[in-house]
């Protein structure tokens, strides 16, 4: 992701401003890019054209290997939309020397991760592993570049997986079609960027194995690739390994096909209206053409993008969501590319508001930025936000590698990654007005109104890829070599791992203020960043009264919506003028306030955090506004089959006890909450003797303690004792099998869930390893059986939500409606098998590595460390777990896993929930569960412990 291509698809939640106050917002500090050090890299090009970039960092124990190919969805052959994306999936299958899914063995199974993505302009493959596995990854990446195996079984399976991904991301989610299909289709008339990258079911079906082989031979070649290695490595060793594995890959003597068609400038505005099922609220999107990312105008467009939609002080948020309450959320999408890009503004309307009102409001904000200069404060605030975002991007080896690779592929020059910072500093208010007047004019607008479909209602305007879009056919090279797996005796095995590189885990230092506030500090000085989290517990959703689901969530959300001396707008403007952000979060057993900011702004940021925590105003107008936003937000979630299945499963498992309701509340419960309920909720939880301030980053312990004292020493604990934690449930409802009929659902959401354990339970670590074996990661049993072997879902997984009290254990997925019963059977069988058959120690070793690797990556960033420690506070876990976690996971043996699985994963004690178009699967499910309950979605009552 380039600096200015922020792709801000912001789904803004409840968004108010408190009563006006006399306090003036702090003036935005002048933006300075001096805090961002240039990325230090070396560069060379092999004789075969492969460009290699190396970024060394001996302060980490990991390494990121990324290969980016200059081919994307724009290069999909004629009649084969979605092809580049489908091909991306096939790159994880077999090569001449690697068996299918061996990339997961080489990455996930040693504590790393791998993934890939397909963009209009590129396809990238990226993985991060312990540094001693670098040579193995280089061997594997070279092998799939040179000798990918494409065979019928894997091809058919992955094509089915991609179809499930399309159903998941586009058909099942509210607004999936708006952003994934219609946005590109209305944005282009000539360039193949018009075609949705996800493709279509019909064109995916039309693809053949010969197409795949031709695509690989045409585009997957060294002179069309960029290799970036970032992390802890020896430069001489790295060069030697790259020469050994990549230098011998032949560069074809034919030219690489390139898309050369230019998108003509839109001269006349267009407007379309569509009506879609599963659309809880109307939406409007307006798309404008913008120049290629390498244009000098990208810098002012990037700053303009931030001014319009970055944070709660942005123009769209303030006007559409907060002030006028027209929209439930509003944002922008800055989609700059190798060629003509698109800049979109959008709004998902609030309940009862019309698409016409949303369109008028969006166009008014675009006109305002054309007609009037932005203020110096807005300009500096936007720049500071971008700078902080750049720093966070560069906290990890993975982030630095992707920054360089993206600059090379999109802009043709790695130096662009740092040069854009200089461009940022030079942007003026006049520049912003100039690009707005140049690109965001009314005659260049393509407007889409996205409305709920009604029986017998109006028909949609036709929207599809324009017939004038120019797409080239894929011409198969004449020298395609069909690769087959090498015989076992001839297969070249990956080299062995080197000696492990040990990571230094941070050490939290804890003190207390006189009022009881815990102060926990972790020093991390590699980048000038600070993450601060103020956590209170007990409390959270578990403390919600039975009839007021969502009370604590609403109260926590309102903390940032005004204090006795600052309005919500002032809070947002002050923190964002520092280049920072502030947010509140409500957990089941606690709540938190979080800020992230450059370390030189820690003092003013902590003052804002303290004011928000200690002096919330809870103005009635803010409560009303937040309540309305929350109701609209839950309305959107209830239209997602997977989310609804999770809500129903919680009720089925916990009934009326602490964890059974919807954490964010339901419309009826939210309407019943009064201001006095909110004030009492705050008073019960937000007190210093039950709070912890976690400070992580470029700060010393002494500095942190001084900041804590100066800002929080005056916070007085009430004389009365804190309310006790909600009692642990004496028992849970009997298991149920529930089908929620959801007509028109694009997929079925499937959840198998039961009650589990508390986080401090002695069996937590064996349960964690058992759960990881069942459903954590690509190589887990559920994902192997459901996705890899059968292609029934894009993914499947499981979780152990161990909280202060026993939380849920669940396995879940989304699948096409007709396969819902089959998927239920697979989940139940795998849960049972884990408790009846002892898992091999070798399999458990890989699952332990997944857990330890994920934990280690969480501890790489300031925000990640603060989040881990905040979670420990909420779950009542000793801070020593930060250093003990890996050892305790390693100490779990196969017998302990089997025992934990037999006790906690037994599906006989689990409820089964399927939400989807029931007529397509209920007969098959009823054969196994003849007493299942069928509940129409329209009759479902989430407020009721019985759902009825």
Plain-language structure description:
This protein is α+β, with helices and mostly antiparallel strands and 948 residues long. A 6-stranded mixed sheet has the order 1-2-6-3-5-4, sandwiched between helices. The longest helix has 20 residues, at 152-171. The two termini are 47 Å apart. The chain folds into 4 domains: 48-246, Cytochrome Bc1 Complex, Chain A, domain 1, CATH 3.30.830.10; 270-394 and 407-452, Metalloenzyme, LuxS/M16 peptidase-like (Cytochrome Bc1 Complex, Chain A, domain 1, 2-Layer Sandwich); 509-640 and 653-712, 2-Layer Sandwich (Cytochrome Bc1 Complex, Chain A, domain 1), CATH 3.30.830.10; 737-857 and 894-939, Metalloenzyme, LuxS/M16 peptidase-like (Cytochrome Bc1 Complex, Chain A, domain 1), CATH 3.30.830.
Largest sheet: 6 strands, mixed
The computed structural class is alpha+beta
Tell me, rounded to a whole number, the average pLDDT.
93
User: Overall 3D geometry?
Assistant: globular
Distance between the termini: 47 Å
CATH C-level class of the largest domain is Alpha Beta
The CATH homologous superfamily of the largest domain is named Metalloenzyme, LuxS/M16 peptidase-like
User: What is the overall number of helices?
Assistant: 31
Give helix % range.
Answer: 25-40%
CATH fold naming of the largest domain: Cytochrome Bc1 Complex, Chain A, domain 1
Secondary-structure arrangement, i.e. CATH architecture of the largest domain = 2-Layer Sandwich
Low-confidence stretches: 1-26
| Fraction in beta strands | 15-25%
Indicate the radius of gyration in whole angstroms. Answer: 27 Å
């Amino acid at each position: 992701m380039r600096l200015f291509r922020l792709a801000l698809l912001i789904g803004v939640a409840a968004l108010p401003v408190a009563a006006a106050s006399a306090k003036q917002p702090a003036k935005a500090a002048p933006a300075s890019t001096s805090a961002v050090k240039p990325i230090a890299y070396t560069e060379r090009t092999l004789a075969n054209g492969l460009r290699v970039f190396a970024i060394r960092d001996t302060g980490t124990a990991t390494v990121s290997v990324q290969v980016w190919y200059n081919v994307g969805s724009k290069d999909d052959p004629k009649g084969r939309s979605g092809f580049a994306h489908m091909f991306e999936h096939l790159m994880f299958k077999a090569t001449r020397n690697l068996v299918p899914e061996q990339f997961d063995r080489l990455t996930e199974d040693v504590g790393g991760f791998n993934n890939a993505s397909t963009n209009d302009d590129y396809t990238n493959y990226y993985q991060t592993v312990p540094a001693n596995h670098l040579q193995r990854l280089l061997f594997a990446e070279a092998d799939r570049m040179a000798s990918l195996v494409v065979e019928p079984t894997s091809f058919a399976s992955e094509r089915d997986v991609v179809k499930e991904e399309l159903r998941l991301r586009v058909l099942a989610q509210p607004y999936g079609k708006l952003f994934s299909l219609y946005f590109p289709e209305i944005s282009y008339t000539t360039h193949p960027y018009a075609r949705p990258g996800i493709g279509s079911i019909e064109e995916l079906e039309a693809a053949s194995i010969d197409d795949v082989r031709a695509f690989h031979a045409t585009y997957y070649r060294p002179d069309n690739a960029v290799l970036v290695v970032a992390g802890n490595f020896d430069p001489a060793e790295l060069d030697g390994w790259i020469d050994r594995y990549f230098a011998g890959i032949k560069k074809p003597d034919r030219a690489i096909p390139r898309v050369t068609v230019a998108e003509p400038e839109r001269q006349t505005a267009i407007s379309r209206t569509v009506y879609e099922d599963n659309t809880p609220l109307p939406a409007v999107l307006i798309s404008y053409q913008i120049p290629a990312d390498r244009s000098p105008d990208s810098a002012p467009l990037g700053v303009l993008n931030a001014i319009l939609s970055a944070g709660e002080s942005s123009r769209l948020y303030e006007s559409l969501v907060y002030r006028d309450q027209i929209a439930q959320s509003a944002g922008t999408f800055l989609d700059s590319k190798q060629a003509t890009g698109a800049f979109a503004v959008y709004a998902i309307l609030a309940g009862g508001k019309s698409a016409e009102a949303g369109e008028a409001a969006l166009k008014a904000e675009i006109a305002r930025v054309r007609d009037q200069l932005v203020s110096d404060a807005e300009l500096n605030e936007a720049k500071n936000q971008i700078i902080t975002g750049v720093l966070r991007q560069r906290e990890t080896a993975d982030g630095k590698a992707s920054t360089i690779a993206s600059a090379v592929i999109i802009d043709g020059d790695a130096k662009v990654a740092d040069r854009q910072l200089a461009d940022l500093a030079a942007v003026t208010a006049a520049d912003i007005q100039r690009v707005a007047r140049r690109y965001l004019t009314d005659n260049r607008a393509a407007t889409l109104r996205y409305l709920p479909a009604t029986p017998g209602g109006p028909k949609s305007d036709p929207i599809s890829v324009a017939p004038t879009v120019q797409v080239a056919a894929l011409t198969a090279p004449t020298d395609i070599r069909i690769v087959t797996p090498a015989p076992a005796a001839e297969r070249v095995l990956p080299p062995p791992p080197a000696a492990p590189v040990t990571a230094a885990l941070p050490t939290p230092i804890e003190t207390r203020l006189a009022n009881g506030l815990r102060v926990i500090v972790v020093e991390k000085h590699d980048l000038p960043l600070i993450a601060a989290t103020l956590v209170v517990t007990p409390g959270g959703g578990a403390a919600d009264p039975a009839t007021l689901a969502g009370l604590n969530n609403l109260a926590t959300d309102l903390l940032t919506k005004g204090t006795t001396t600052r309005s919500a707008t002032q809070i947002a403007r002050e923190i964002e003028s520092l280049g920072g952000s502030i947010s509140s979060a409500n957990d089941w057993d606690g709540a938190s306030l979080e800020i992230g900011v450059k370390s030189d702004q820690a003092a003013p940021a902590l003052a804002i955090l303290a004011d928000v925590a200690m002096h919330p105003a809870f103005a009635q107008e803010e409560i009303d506004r937040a309540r309305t936003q929350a109701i609209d937000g839950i309305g959107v979630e209830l239209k997602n089959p997977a989310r609804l299945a999770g809500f129903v499963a919680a009720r089925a498992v916990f009934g009326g006890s602490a964890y059974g309701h919807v954490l964010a509340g339901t419309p009826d419960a939210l309407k019943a909450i009064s201001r006095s309920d909110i004030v009492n909720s705050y008073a019960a939880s937000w007190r210093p003797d039950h709070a912890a301030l976690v400070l992580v980053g470029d700060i010393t312990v002494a500095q942190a303690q001084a900041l804590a004292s100066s800002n929080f020493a005056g916070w007085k604990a009430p004389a009365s004792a804190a309310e006790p934690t909600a009692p642990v449930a004496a028992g849970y409802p009997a298991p149920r099998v529930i089908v929620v009929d959801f007509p028109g659902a694009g997929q079925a959401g499937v959840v198998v869930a039961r009650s589990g354990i508390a986080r401090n339970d002695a069996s937590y670590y064996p349960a964690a390893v058992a759960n990881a074996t069942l459903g954590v990661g690509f190589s887990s049993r559920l994902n192997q059986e459901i996705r890899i072997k059968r292609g029934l879902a894009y993914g499947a997984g499981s979780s152990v939500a161990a909280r202060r009290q026993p939380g849920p254990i669940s396995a879940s997925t989304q699948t096409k409606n007709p396969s819902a019963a089959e998927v239920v059977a697979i989940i139940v069988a795998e849960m049972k098998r884990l408790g009846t058959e002892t898992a091999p120690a070798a399999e458990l070793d890989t699952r332990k590595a997944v857990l330890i690797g994920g934990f280690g990556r969480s501890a790489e960033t300031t925000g990640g460390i603060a989040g881990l420690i905040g979670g420990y506070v909420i779950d009542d876990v000793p801070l020593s777990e930060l250093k003990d976690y890996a050892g305790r996971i390693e100490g779990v043996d196969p017998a302990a896993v089997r025992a934990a699985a037999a006790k906690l994963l037994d599906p006989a004690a689990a409820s089964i929930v399927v939400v989807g178009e029931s007529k397509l699967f209920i007969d098959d499910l009823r054969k196994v569960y003849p007493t299942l309950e069928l509940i129409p979605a329209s009759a479902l009552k989430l407020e009721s412990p019985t759902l009825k």
